Amino acid sequence: MPNQLRLELFTPVHDDRPVFVSGSFNDWNPADEAFRMQPDGEGQYTFTFPADRSLPETVDYKYTKGGWDHVELSSAGEGVPNRTTGSRPHAEPDIVPHWRWFGQAFNPEFLPKQVGEEFHLPQLDTNRRVTVLLPHDYENHPDKRYPVLYMNDGQNLLGEGVGYGSWRVEEKMAMLASRRRHDLIIVTIDHGEAQRLQEYTVEKTRMAGRARGRDYLKFIRDTLKPTVDANLRTLPDAEHTGIGGSSLGGLISVYAGLMHPDVFGRLMVFSPSLWISPKIYFDAIRFKAPVPMRVFVYGGAAESKYMVPNLERFKESLVKQQYGGNPIDMYLSIYPDGTHEEVHWSREFPRAVEWLFHGEHP
């Protein structure tokens, strides 16, 4: 037991900036040399308050890397509230997943390289924009191969997005790069506008009419993925290939895993429209994974009264099949205040990437 209050910080972000602790005890000076933390191993820092420093019963504080434009952030690059701890002698463990970079939520040098072009979908007899995001240092590692994540609804993934906003995936990948979790090729596929409902469903319904989801998934499996694997340094097996999306894009991602588990072994499923395909629970119960599979599922309790129960039922259905076949590791993330919007899916994206492709616990 320490004789004074000691702060013990871990951060996965690797750079040369020093770390400071700031609070009411130093007038919230973000770069006070008297409160500079001491390195104690990779990503590890400690600070012990001096014995002659009078502290209030409750200590409010925050970590910085030398200024408020370098202050600590959440894993999604958002601001966080002040920390609090008691002033009694003890060791207080803390984690800072991300930091502001000269006032920005990410280092722009870490933005992935984007390459987009029109792509023909012979299975749907149409053209669609496909955009590839390569790690910022892809060219620096000519012998390295990367997992691939295919993502639906490309119009709402990059930049400002179209209509409903954007996940800002490129910015989230730059954030992940600061903690060396960016070794991933992302391929975004624009949806078919008026054909979106048909292309993202596999069952004929009154709402969807003729379902074209099987054809859409065959396009990814038989046309797009072979092209990506032939032209980029990928890890082409199912354990390194993922597919993801939200709402209808989440629903078709589920079916990608159920129908083509030998192709897609990593599923990123956000707020899936399970209600459109009630047969999906039966399909999940019958499913057997030919390879170990990981499934990250997110939903917001404020989306509808059915969202969380549907996700829990889906998880239960998928788990029931595990009397045979390979294991399915499924993580269910529920946010009480989450609504059916891009801002929540954007916030969840880094956690999902780290869990699916790097084995990090959310």
Using brief descriptors, characterize the structure shown:
362 residues; alpha/beta; eight-stranded mixed sheet; four-stranded mixed sheet; 7 helices; 17 strands; elongated
Q: Would you kindly provide a written description of the structure presented here, covering whatever features stand out?
A:
Helix 1 (169-178) packs across helix 7 (342-358) and helix 5 packs parallel to helix 6 (307-320). The protein is α/β, with parallel strands linked by helices and 362 residues long. Helix 5 links the parallel strand 15 and strand 16 (293-300). It is built from 7 helices and 17 strands.
Question: How do you describe this structure in short?
Answer:
The protein is an alpha/beta fold and about 350 residues long.
| Helix content percent band | 10-25%
Q: Beta fraction of the residues? A: 15-25%
Shape: elongated
Rg, please?
Answer: 23 Å
Q: What is the N-to-C order of secondary-structure elements (H for helix, E for strand)?
A: EEEEEEEEEEEEHEHHEHEHEHEH
Going across the major beta sheet, what is the strand order? 10-11-13-12-14-15-16-17
Point out poorly predicted stretches.
none
How many helix segments?
A: 7
Q: Strand tally, please?
A: 17
Largest sheet: 8 strands, mixed
Structural class: alpha/beta
Average pLDDT, rounded to a whole number, is 93
Report, as a whole number of angstroms, the end-to-end distance.
30 Å
